[in-house]
Amino acid sequence: MKPPRLTRTGDAAPPGIVHFGPGAFFRAHLAPYTDEALQAAGGDWGIVAVSLKSPTARDQLAPQGGVYTSVALAADGMAPKVISAITDVLVAPEDPDAVIDVLADPAIRIVSLTITEKGYGYDPATGGLDPAHPDIAHDLSNPNFPTSAIGFIVAGLEVRRQSDTPPFAVLSCDNLPSNGALTRAVTLDFARRVSPDIADWIAAEVSFPSTMVDRITPATTDANRAALVDLTGTMDSAAVFHEPFRQWVIEDDFPTGRPEWEAAGAQLVRNVEAHELMKLRCLNGTHSALAYLGYLAGYETIADTVANPNFARFCEVLWREEITPTVPKPEGEDLSAYCATLMRRYRDPAIRHRTWQIAMDGSQKLPQRLLGTIADTLAMGRVPHGLCLAVAGWMRYVGAVDEDGQPIDVRDPMAERLQAAGTVEALLAIREIFSENLVVQSDFRDGVRAAYRALERDGARATVRAFVAA
Ligand code: CS2
């Protein structure tokens, strides 16, 4: 007999948030925090989720009335929690006007984003908008029929401006440095190209708080879903499975209000930058390093990779010698304790986070995860050989052939260009990834070249072993 489907019981909170990008991370992070804030303190903070591309999230959530289970995976079993904060799910390409209408609704006071790095149409070389990004280019030519989050936000704000409705706050929850300021820069750049009036209004009126978000959330598998049916007796197509740990640091700048997220343990602070830098460099930086080198070494998950003592030691050397010296200590944090906790999280055997998943979109991730740290270490007069090895690992990975001669399914908006590049020199010449200031430094180039040669000659396992033995 088929198990019954999870359904909503009780009323949904009236909506106050529109969220772009209702994937697994949002369902494991912002939505549970908001759900708990609603339960603790109430408020009209239901979430209208908007998919920008595929109908998958809607097809999973709508038959369940928007409710789903957020499951913390622990060594001793699963801890499920039903989340009811999502009140509706829209699929933007099916009805863009419906999205603009909800963005224009005065009840909406926050628009949040988990659209991944490539969703911002950001050009790291200029620090502004990339007008050649396909969705951005489309939206600049058709500002009333947007396809991108930035296009929708500007279209929604324009309706609010014309109807004298106060703006919503725009809350980026992606792993980008100074994500609030970055979102503001691309939004203003986009708006300026549409009309100076809307750009001036946004500059004067709209707040873009920065955030640091953290919870390891591997892609959901059929085995996860089946285990949940065994535990609860109900079928949930929209369930997400994640580590027990979570952290959210938010710049407290919401002129028209916000849920009481602190009731759920979020940290509302004046300045998030130091927390973001710590997380991006210590967690995401080593995640990417372990993903490329671990994949090449034949490991399926991060936990498998750090179960090899040489890779665990490699990661610890990166933290101690190359990463934390570049990270100012955020208030209330202890960097070595933070990294020790990270290693415990990586080792967690209940979390099967695939190296292949983290390896995706490297062209969008490398600058803020690895290259900024490399530049800062070089400026201190030292050569970060471990991080150069990580970059060389990425270069081998995007070559799309593994150490056994098998093809690698490289997922990256620049995948074709990266594979066609073919050499270290050609990859270093890609200015969207490697800044001029970095590649002119011969210590960096030599470090990457030497590491790449070692990977070609000896493979990832032996190269990492030799690195930690040196
Ligand atoms: C990971 C992140 O996939 C990736 O690139 O590094 O998703 C990471 O798991 C989260 O940022 C953890 O908070």
The span between the termini is: 60 Å
Number of strands: 13
Rg from Cα: 22 Å
Small-molecule components bound: D-mannonic acid
**Major sheet attributes:** 5 strands, parallel
Counting H and I runs of at least 4 residues, what is the number of helices? Answer: 20
InterPro entries: 6-PGluconate_DH-like_C_sf (IPR008927), 6PGD_dom2 (IPR013328), Mannitol_DH (IPR000669), Mannitol_DH/Oxidoreductase (IPR050988), Mannitol_DH_C (IPR013118), Mannitol_DH_CS (IPR023027), Mannitol_DH_N (IPR013131), NAD(P)-bd_dom_sf (IPR036291)
Protein name: Mannitol dehydrogenase family protein
GO molecular function: oxidoreductase activity, acting on the CH-OH group of donors, NAD or NADP as acceptor
Keywords: NAD, Oxidoreductase
Structure, described:
- Keywords: NAD, Oxidoreductase.
- The model has no long low-confidence stretch (mean pLDDT 97).
- A hairpin with a 4-residue loop joins β7 and β8 (128-129).
- The protein has helices spanning 24-28, 30-41, 56-61, 96-104, 134-141, 149-162, 179-194, 196-205, 222-232, 273-296, 302-307, 309-323, 335-347, 355-359, 362-379, 385-398, 415-421, 424-428, 436-439, 442-469; strands at 15-20, 46-51, 68-74, 77-83, 86-91, 110-113, 122-123, 128-129, 169-172, 211-214, 240-242, 247-251, 267-269.
- The chain is globular, with a radius of gyration of 22 Å.
- The strands form four sheets. A five-stranded parallel sheet has the order 5-2-1-6-9, sandwiched between helices.
- It is an alpha/beta fold and 470 residues long.
- The chain starts with 14 loop residues before the first strand and ends with a helix.
- The structure holds D-mannonic acid.
